Amino acid sequence: MAILDTLQLTNQVEKLAQVTRDLKRKHKQLQNQKCASCGATSPDGADDEDQSSKPTFSVRELRAILHERNELKLKLNKAEEQLQVLQVQPHQEPDRAQGAVRELRAILTERNELKRMLNKAEEQLQALVQPHQEPDR
């Protein structure tokens, strides 16, 4: 039973590590897009009306998302450390394994929420960047 829990924890940690790498990549893409779109404004102001009807994320909200992402990374590191302890001493602390499973589930839930928020931010940023990338006709 403890071996199965350890394997499940290992799989979950690997999945979280992959998601973290994906989120880092997406974050870097968003930062690059954000930098490219910071100075871009509509010459005639026609896009302003279209963009005002779309939900927008403020810089503060994007920073909050990044802050939550960093907190999740810290929790992931903590979970990985707990997993290493369990692999070294699997039979000495069974309650700790249950706590690690609960914590990993909480991390997964938070990660899913952050992914959803990040996807929304990406969509919004893409919608804002695309009109500025199209050549004038």
From TrEMBL:
It comes from the Eukaryota. Residues 28-56 are annotated as: Disordered. Keywords: Coiled coil. Residues 62-131 form a coiled coil. The keyword Coiled coil applies. This is RILP-like protein-like protein. It comes from Operophtera brumata. The lineage of its organism: Eukaryota, Metazoa, Ecdysozoa, Arthropoda, Hexapoda.
